[in-house]
Design brief:
- The chain is an alpha+beta fold.
- The chain has three helices and 19 strands.
- A hairpin with a 2-residue loop joins β1 and β2.
């Protein structure tokens, strides 16, 4: 008996037909299910669209990445060293621009710049109010973020809330795996206002199973800020925001054990945006 097989690919579905029995079978095409299943080029394409590999987890016995890996098989130590190098590069850039470090180890803007609270005149304050009110979904302003600030110095929440988890290696609170926490977690009730610490452009607004409702803003001089576990986005892709603009509300979305804000800073090291330790940038 002679059989003939016709294979047709259409809209991601493979149709297999046998003309002897006149029967057909629809079979779904197999696609990668997680970020780790992607090839290197596919990962880069996904990352360029704003996806954050959040948060990186490592096998306790081998020390190599097993979940949310931007680079398959990277070790925890290698990732921490990469972040440290990028942090040093970003810090040196600030120091070269006239910033100094205070007694707490945080960055301080140079005297007379637009990035210091000491020289916000009434005219500047009025100007900020006009700018903020004219921007789409961008009010009120953060009282401690200087007018016209272009680098993410300061905090995304008002009142210096408690940091419940700092930057660095930790045991993941949900999975129990070793992990690299490339940002800081702030305690915050549901619906707390989240602000951009610097002017910039919204480059990604997304929702996934780990970050939950996420937001990324690109600032000048190679900086980006990232916000996770939000309950609400108040801005959209492409929106221009001024320093101190309200951009989101805190929540408990994604892989989270309770309401809080995950906040991270990235810096372009000349090749791509990578995480830096945000501790010095917080100003406390």
């Amino acid at each position: 008996m002679k059989f003939s097989l016709v294979l047709t690919i259409f809209s991601g579905v493979v149709l297999v037909a046998n003309d002897v029995f006149g029967a057909s079978l629809l079979k779904n095409q197999s696609f990668p299910k997680t970020f780790n299943d992607l090839t290197f080029s596919q990962k880069n394409a996904v990352l360029s669209e704003g996806y954050e590999p959040w948060e990186t987890e490592y096998d306790k016995s081998t020390g190599r990445c097993i979940s949310n890996c931007a680079y398959q098989g990277i070790t925890m130590q290698e990732q921490l060293e990469n972040i440290e190098r990028n942090t040093i590069n970003a810090a040196n850039q600030l120091l070269a621009s006239g910033y100094s470090v205070n007694e707490n180890g945080s960055f301080v803007a140079p005297a007379g710049s637009a990035n210091t609270n000491n020289n916000i005149s009434n005219a500047n304050t009025q100007s900020q109010n006009i700018i903020v009110s004219s921007l789409k979904r961008c009010s009120p302003s953060h009282p401690d973020i200087p007018v016209g600030q272009t680098r993410p110095i300061g905090e995304p929440l008002v009142g210096k809330p408690k940091i419940t988890s700092g930057y660095g290696s930790r045991i993941h609170p949900v999975t129990g795996n070793n992990s690299v926490h490339a940002g800081v977690d702030f305690a915050a009730a549901l619906g707390t206002s989240v602000f951009s610490p610097a002017s910039g452009t919204v480059v990604s607004v997304w929702t996934d199973s780990t970050c939950g409702k996420g937001l990324k803003i690109r600032h000048s001089d190679g900086y980006e800020t990232v916000y996770c576990h939000l309950s609400q986005h108040l801005v959209s892709n492409g929106d221009k925001v001024e320093a101190g603009c309200e951009v989101a509300k805190t929540g408990n979305t994604g892989r989270s054990t309770g309401p809080h804000l995950h906040y991270a800073i990235k810096h372009n090291n000349g090749k791509k945006y990578d995480y830096i330790d945000p501790t010095q940038w917080l100003g406390r």
